[in-house]
Amino acid sequence: MSALRPHLLDSTGGLGYHLGAALRRRRAWAPFRAQVARWLAGWSPGRAELVLVGPSGGYTLPLEFLSRFRRVTVLEPDPLARFILRRRFPTIPFHFEFLDCLALPEGPATLARAHPHAAILFANLLGQVADGGDMPPLAAALRSALAGHPWASYHDVLSAPEPPGRPVPEQVPARATADTLARALWPGRPLPITDHGTLDLVGSGDAQLALWSLAPGAHHVVEWAHQTPPRQARGS
Length: 236
Hints:
Layout: H1 15-24, H2 30-41, E1 49-53, H3 63-66, E2 71-75, H4 79-88, E3 94-97, H5 107-114, E4 118-123, H6 135-145, E5 151-160, H7 178-185, E6 194-195, E7 208-215, E8 218-227, H8 230-233
Parallel strand pairs: 1-2, 1-4, 2-3, 4-5
Antiparallel strand pairs: 5-6, 5-8, 7-8
Helix pairs in contact: 5-6
């Protein structure tokens, strides 16, 4: 199985991203960070181990959430991000691994086998890892491989150089598509709106949304959803 490669110069997780996070995390990102904290506070996976996939420096993750787990395994390719993650959360005993769990066709299944008793969180990663056309097979592979795990993801759905002209709804509207959502949020604006191919990625049917103004000229609609294994949902 392939291993993660360093991404020091990537715009989504390299040196520039870390500098931007240092400048914006406390104030400009505060509303989004608070929303993520609410999402995670309401997620009860019922496991003592967490696998955290792609957290970068953990800039949107709350300590209160990470402290709920006895073991936190991290899959993060950026060595600077791993250093920052340790510095930001010195009380969390992180364990770093280097499995490329998104490499098709075997990556998701290998992740499931390697951590059979873990909850799995994709931390604002899946909207960045594939072109929109490549996302359906990856989403299908994740749903199949992780059917026995409690797992969750928050990820980019739409992004544009200007903020939406209308408020982002808390819930994904019924029967919404990425196109209808984009038209509703940016009405009448011929913007280059990027569809990340991730709407309803988890397939749980109860996804929630939030706006993340990442930087001037970079505004992202982010989806949150989680899935519970059927046997856990029945209370068995």
